[in-house]
Every structure is written in structure tokens, then in C-alpha cells.
TrEMBL record, chain A:
This is Small ribosomal subunit protein mS29. GO terms for cellular component: mitochondrial small ribosomal subunit. GO terms for biological process: apoptotic process. Keywords: Mitochondrion, Ribonucleoprotein, Ribosomal protein, Signal, Transit peptide. It is found in: Mitochondrion. Pfam families: DAP3. Belongs to the mitochondrion-specific ribosomal protein mS29 family. SUPFAM superfamilies: P-loop containing nucleoside triphosphate hydrolases. GO terms for molecular function: structural constituent of ribosome. Its main location: mitochondrion. Residues 1-17 form the signal peptide.
From TrEMBL, chain B:
This is Small ribosomal subunit protein uS9m. Residues 357-384 are annotated as: Disordered. Belongs to the universal ribosomal protein uS9 family. GO terms for biological process: translation. InterPro entries: Ribosomal_Su5_D2-typ_SF, Ribosomal_uS9, Ribosomal_uS9_bac/plastid, Ribosomal_uS9_CS, Ribsml_uS5_D2-typ_fold_subgr. Its main location: mitochondrion. Residues 365-384 have a biased composition (Basic residues). Gene3D superfamilies: 3.30.230.10. Keywords: Mitochondrion, Ribonucleoprotein, Ribosomal protein, Transit peptide. NCBIfam families: PRK00132.1.
Length: 361, 384
């Protein structure tokens, strides 16, 4: 029985695009080479530690991700981009489902614009520079340049093909001409840290204009934002006169909001709500209305909500067998049926709590 | 006629029970007026009095007998007054009636009006131990603890008698060896023995007495002295027979459910345990994973269900108020254990009791004392 289930857990040979409901609950491996290019910054921290420990990246195929992928397959890309919001309680697997969907997009040849955690842009910022281009705004050079570096790692092959449509002037001596490959734009941002926020804005604008075009070099754009509720919440950043910074005053946030409007076509917008990094929100809040607030909800409306919940019994079995297979559960009692019941009770089948619990065994 | 007889009855009742609450100017009672101020107590041992050193008895035998008569008459009058049957008027009924007739706002329960049998009220006193010529009656009088030593002599005499019997019967058949069974009872405490002998003793004396009794019990053929030994033993009640099991109810769909409460420190919890096959637990409307993010609290919830082996079987709907997170978890645990009693056999109930699941934790926050920083912590001690 155990061996039979073991064979069922891993669906390595099935190509990722063909995952269907039959594979729900099974694990599939992400090839390590793709991992470094696709997700330089996207995966949750604990999952990265698990990859290092087990020497492989195994992701469970779950129903929310399958639902999202089916929507992506069926969507019409000549229409304005659809917005998908993954929501659910903390630790249920929203970020992992998002990464699964992104992997699917990447294998289909899409361009992936992944912002790993929007909350990082609204808190703990050491350097806040007043923006060079607009008077009222604030720049975040470090975050922007870091993100541009990761973006470059992910989408290297596209950057040489896409050309700029406008001339951008950064300083008196630096400009980017029209028709230059986007790679130059990105390099400019990485090299000149001071203007990196504006580079990000320019990049987003270019991609918006050129996604899903009818030309040969047409590409589909997947915009993935984790923790999208940060864009409409409060920040913990303060200006020099100790007054609080509103999210609109940050260049990065402003440009990202423009990206999330559905006035462009040829792609999809996948977002996740996250309570973990959110600021000034009660612990019980997990629904879109509560976390996004009035303004955010009105901006994101209409969207396709995708709820993510704790493991079902089958998924729990699968996860348990995976840990047993990897010899992760060392305690002898945890390998018995009673131990399994205890694990179910103590974690209530919540994936992250289960993972932390098993790590201590 | 009835009025004056009842007024006489009331007066006799008042005199019987209100001795310390009366004013000195109480008219015409045959008692020695000094005795009206005697501080009445339940048992002299509680007050730490040295009974033997109290000297010859302050209350004479006839006096106590008269008090007993008056008490029984007063009891009948009281029963008549309350409209109850005098034959079946128990001590609890007396207490209830006195509390009704003489309502007292005093906080100290021992200062309130009381009407009990004179044997309880008047401390037991030893009779005068020497005759008119001054010679003591008991040969052990000059040891100072005559009751104790005479008891020890008696017990040792029994030990010798049993050993003699043993020697005699050793040559004959040995079918009659029966030992006294001591399960379900315990030796009397030192205070209880002092009460029995109407004499104080030291800890050393008490331990010697216990040693001698153990020696007696350990001998074969000691079953002959069983009655004598049982006089000095107190029976222990079986604890779990006093446990109240909450009633098992069924709702419309036939699902069995049970309600129970639990308390710990300042937290109080009330739960409904349903016998569905799902293991959902909702606390105050939230999932227990959300309400108790700390693992320790969830382990506390798991303990009773895991102990009985019914982890995934029950649905719990809980309301909990007050206290902190640990106190709330403890209160819920107690409530779940109590609710489980109706689903579990009596043998398992006994194991649960021994595991400590059914005992409510009496620990509460200790009071802060004046002159100290906390309950135990003292202010910094300065040498000068």
C-alpha cells in the first residue's frame, strides 16, 4: 500500500503543462537549472530551505493552482488583462500556488514579471531619495536595483528582442535612445542606482505597451505580485519631517499600480494577498475586502478570486508520505498512525504549520 | 397557651445557642454566670489547647447531661416551630432553621449562631483522675500521659497474646492465617488520636504508636484483633464514585452531544461536544488554529481526546472568557475532559482521573502582601 502510494506521489515524467485534476495531490519536481533563472527571488523562505535540505524542489499540485492554470489556458489574450487574486488564511499555500502558475507561464514561453513581496517596498527602507523626475515622489534605489537584477536573470532572452519606443533622459549626460534593446535599459538601472526607480517605471511602461502585440516578437506578459495589499495599505516609512509616507508617493508603488490596471492586453495579472508582511491589519483578516481596503478593492475590481485553503485529507496524506519518503520525520512515534492523527490535530492540516511541526520532529 | 409555650421554647433555644452572643446582663439562669462568657469551640485540638493540663473538668458530668436533655427538647420545639416532624429533624435541618430564624451578617462563619449537640460544642475533657484521698486512679498517672501509655500497654499485650497463640498453633495446622486487610483505609492522624484519647502527644509518641500497630498488623492471626485495629483507622472513600457525569443529549438529527464547563485561574469555558466524525474545533467563533497560535495551547486541547483515543471523532464548539491564553487552554481542557465522561466507560474514567484530567487546578494568583513587593518577593534588604 505504501509503495503503491509512493509511486503515485511523484509525477515526474508528466510535462508540467498537462497537469490535470488527476494529478491533484501529487508532487512534481522543478529542474534545478530552471529554478535559478525563474525564481531568483520568488519562493518562500522556508521552501528555499527545504530545497537546500532535500536537494530538490518538489511542489505539490493543488487545486487552486490547477484552477488558475486552467483559467490562463482558456483566457482570451486580445482582451484586456484579467486579474486573479489568490486569497486565503496564512500559511495555506498562496505563494506556492502563484509560483506553480508562474512556472507554467514560463514553460509556455511567457515573459514573467515577478514582484516577490510588495511589502518589502513599503517598509524597512534605509534610503529614501526624493525623486529626480517628479517633485512630490520618493525613490527607493536599493530595492529597485535589486529587483532589476533579478528581473534580468529571469527574462534575459527577451531583453535583447524588445526595443524601447521612446527616448528616456536620466541625467544631463545619460539618455537611452529610442529603439535600443530593453537590456540596455535594465543595465542602466542596475549600474546607476540613483535613477533605478525611474528605470523600473520606464520598463513597466514599455512592457505594457508592447505585450501581446501582433508582431513577430510578440510575447505574453505575466505580472505576478505577491502581497498586493501592500500597495493600498499604509507604510512604515517616514519623511525627514517625520510625517508618514503614503504609498502613492513612492515611485515604485505608483508605477506598479499603473501596471495593475487592466488597460493593457496580451497577458495576465496574478496576485496574492498576504497578511504576513502586512502593516496595521488585524490578525484575523484574510478576505480581499479586509486586506485590500476600499481603495484597493475598487481598483482591483473586477477580478477573479481564487480561494486557497488548508490541505484536504488526500493532500495531507501525500505530504505526509513525501516527508516519510525523504526520512524527514525522525521521531519513531510520528511514523505511526497515532502520530499522524496527532499531526492532523495539531496543525489542522495547515501546510505551513505542518511543515514547522515536522521540522521539529 | 400556645403563645407562651412557644415563647418559652424560643427562650430555651436562644439560651442554648446564643451563649457567646448574649450580653452579660442575662437574667435568672441556673448556670454559673462565669460560664456564659466561655469561648465555645468545636474541638480543643483545633485550638491547640493542652487538654490534660487544663486540669479537672470545668463542666461537670451532670451539667453536660442536662445540656443534652435541653438540646433534645429544644430540637423538638424548633421542629414544631418550623412545622416539621420532630422525629425526623436532622442536624442539617437544625442549621437551616437557625440560619433562617437568626440571620447574621457576620463574615466569620464560626461567630454565627449555632445549635449543635453538646458533645460537639463542649470540648471533651478528661474526668478527674484522682480520688478524695489524692491517690490517682490509673497506675500510669505519674507518667503524665496516662491515656497514651495505657494504650501502648494494651496494644503490646495484644501483640504478646498473638505471639503466644502463634507458638501454640505452630505445631498444629496453619490453615487459619488471616491478616487484616488495610486497603481502603488509613491510620488516624495525630490530631485525631489526640481527640480520641483527650490527651496531647508529641510526634515521636505518635510514630512509636504507628510502629507498634504496624507490628501488630504484620503478625499472622492478627485478624482476631481486627475490630480493635479498625478503631484506629479512617476509611478512604473511592474518589471517582463522587464524579458527576454530564448528561448525554441528542439533537434532532440524532447526533449525540454533551455540554460541560471548566475553569482555570480566571478563565471559564463552556463547550458542546458533538459526536460527528469530523474533528473541527471552533473557539469563540474562530478556528482553534487561529485562536491558539501557540503549539502548547493546542497540545493542551489535544490531551484529553488523545488520551481516550478519540482524536478525529468529535466536533467541539467552545466559548471561553477571561484569563490569559494558558488559563483559557487549561479551562477548555478541563471542560473537554468532563464532557468526554459521558462517552467513556467507568474504567477509563478512573484512568482519566488518575491522569489528572478531571481535577480542576486550584492554583490562583497569590495575594500581594503589604510590606512586600509581591506575593513572595521582598523589598531590597538593607543592612543599615
Amino acid at each position: 500500500m505504501f509503495i503503491f502510494l509512493l509511486i503515485e506521489i511523484f509525477s515526474r515524467s508528466v510535462p508540467q503543462a498537462c497537469h490535470t485534476d488527476l494529478h491533484a495531490g501529487q508532487y512534481y519536481t522543478l529542474p534545478t537549472a530552471q529554478l535559478r533563472t525563474l525564481f531568483p527571488h520568488g519562493l518562500p523562505y522556508r521552501f528555499q530551505m527545504q530545497i537546500k535540505t532535500f536537494n530538490e524542489a518538489c511542489v505539490m499540485v493543488r487545486q487552486p493552482a490547477l484552477e488558475l492554470i486552467s483559467y490562463l489556458k482558456k483566457a482570451d489574450y486580445s482582451r484586456p488583462a484579467l486579474r486573479y487574486i489568490l486569497y486565503g488564511e496564512t500559511g495555506c499555500g498562496k505563494t506556492m500556488s502563484l509560483c506553480h502558475a508562474l512556472h507554467f507561464c514560463a514553460t509556455q514561453g511567457w515573459m514573467v514579471l515577478h514582484i516577490p513581496d510588495a511589502h518589502l517596498w513599503v517598509k524597512n527602507c534605509r534610503e529614501l531619495l526624493p525623486s529626480s523626475s517628479r517633485p512630490g515622489r520618493l525613490d527607493q534605489p536599493l530595492q529597485a536595483s535589486l529587483w532589476l537584477k533579478n528581473f534580468k536573470t529571469t527574462n534575459d532572452r527577451f531583453l535583447s528582442k524588445i526595443k524601447t519606443t521612446q527616448r528616456y533622459v536620466w541625467t544631463k549626460r545619460e539618455t537611452t535612445e529610442e529603439g535600443r534593446p530593453l537590456g540596455e535599459l535594465v543595465d542602466q538601472g542596475v549600474a546607476r542606482v540613483k535613477s533605478s526607480s525611474d528605470v523600473v517605471g520606464a520598463l513597466l511602461r514599455e512592457l505594457r505597451l508592447q505585450a501581446g502585440g501582433a508582431a513577430e516578437g510578440a510575447f505574453r506578459l505575466a505580472v505576478a505580485v505577491d502581497g498586493v495589499n501592500a500597495l493600498w495599505g499604509r507604510t512604515t516609512l517616514k519623511k525627514e519631517d517625520k510625517s508618514e509616507v503614503l504609498p502613492e508617493e513612492l515611485t515604485l508603488v505608483h508605477n506598479l499600480r499603473k501596471m495593475l490596471r487592466n488597460d493593457w492586453s496580451g497577458g495576465a495579472i496574478l496576485t496574492t494577498l498576504s497578511h504576513t508582511g502586512s502593516l496595521y491589519k488585524p490578525r484575523s483578516a484574510y478576505l480581499p475586502m479586509e486586506l485590500l481596503g476600499e481603495e484597493g478593492f475598487d481598483t482591483m475590481d473586477p477580478f477573479v478570486p481564487v480561494p486557497v485553503s488548508s490541505y484536504t485529507e488526500k493532500e495531507f496524506e501525500s505530504c505526509y508520505l513525501y516527508y516519510m519518503d525523504r526520512h524527514w520525520l525522525q521521531h519513531p512515534h510520528s511514523q505511526t498512525e497515532e502520530g499522524k492523527k496527532e499531526l492532523i490535530f495539531l496543525s489542522n492540516r495547515n501546510p505551513s504549520i505542518l511543515e514547522r511541526l515536522c521540522a521539529t520532529l | 397557651m400556645a403563645a407562651c409555650s412557644s415563647s418559652r421554647a424560643v427562650r430555651s433555644i436562644l439560651l442554648n445557642c446564643g451563649k457567646y452572643s448574649r450580653t452579660p446582663r442575662r437574667p435568672a439562669h441556673s448556670l454559673n454566670p462565669q460560664l456564659l462568657y466561655r469561648h465555645v469551640c468545636q474541638s480543643a485540638a483545633v485550638w491547640g489547647k493542652n487538654l490534660a493540663a487544663a486540669g479537672p473538668e470545668k463542666f461537670s458530668e451532670e451539667y453536660i447531661k442536662k445540656q443534652i436533655e435541653e438540646f433534645s427538647i429544644g430540637k423538638r420545639h424548633l421542629a414544631n416551630m418550623m412545622g416539621e416532624d420532630p422525629e425526623t429533624f436532622t442536624q442539617e435541618d437544625i442549621d437551616r432553621s437557625i440560619a433562617y430564624l437568626f440571620p447574621s451578617g457576620l463574615f466569620e462563619k464560626r461567630a454565627r449562631p449555632v445549635m449543635k449537640h453538646p458533645d460537639i460544642i463542649f470540648p471533651k475533657q478528661s474526668a478527674i483522675q484522682w480520688g478524695e484521698d489524692g491517690r490517682p486512679f490509673n497506675f500510669l498517672f505519674y507518667t503524665g500521659k496516662q491515656a497514651y501509655y495505657s494504650l501502648m500497654h494494651e496494644v503490646f499485650g495484644k501483640v504478646l497474646a498473638i505471639e503466644k497463640r502463634q507458638d501454640r498453633l505452630r505445631n498444629e495446622d496453619t490453615t487459619d492465617i488471616k491478616q487484616i486487610s488495610l486497603t481502603g483505609s488509613r491510620w488516624m492522624l495525630k490530631e485525631e488520636l489526640e481527640d480520641l484519647l483527650v490527651e496531647t502527644m508529641s510526634d515521636h509518641d505518635y510514630s512509636r504508636f504507628l510502629q507498634l500497630m504496624e507490628r501488630l498488623v504484620a503478625l499472622p492471626y492478627s485478624s482476631l484483633e481486627e475490630e480493635f485495629v479498625q478503631r484506629f483507622r479512617q476509611q478512604l472513600g473511592v474518589q471517582s464514585s463522587k464524579q458527576e457525569i454530564p448528561a448525554l443529549q441528542h439533537d434532532e438529527k440524532g447526533v449525540a452531544f454533551c455540554q460541560a464547563n471548566g475553569r482555570r485561574k480566571t478563565a471559564s469555558a463552556s463547550i458542546t461536544l458533538r459526536d460527528c466524525r469530523s474533528g473541527n474545533i471552533m473557539v469563540n467563533g474562530k478556528s482553534y488554529l487561529q485562536y491558539f497560535p501557540i503549539l502548547q495551547d493546542r497540545e493542551q486541547l489535544m490531551f484529553p481526546l488523545h488520551f481516550v483515543g478519540m482524536l478525529g471523532r468529535f466536533d467541539v464548539e467552545a466559548h471561553v472568557e477571561g484569563g490569559g491564553r494558558s488559563a483559557q487552554a487549561g479551562a477548555l481542557r478541563l471542560a473537554i475532559s468532563r464532557a468526554l465522561l459521558s462517552f467513556v466507560s467507568s474504567g477509563e474514567m478512573e484512568t482519566m482521573r488518575q491522569a489528572g484530567l478531571l481535577t480542576s487546578d486550584p492554583r490562583v494568583k497569590e495575594r500581594k502582601k503589604p510590606g512586600q513587593a509581591g506575593a513572595r518577593k521582598k523589598f531590597t534588604w538593607k543592612k543599615r
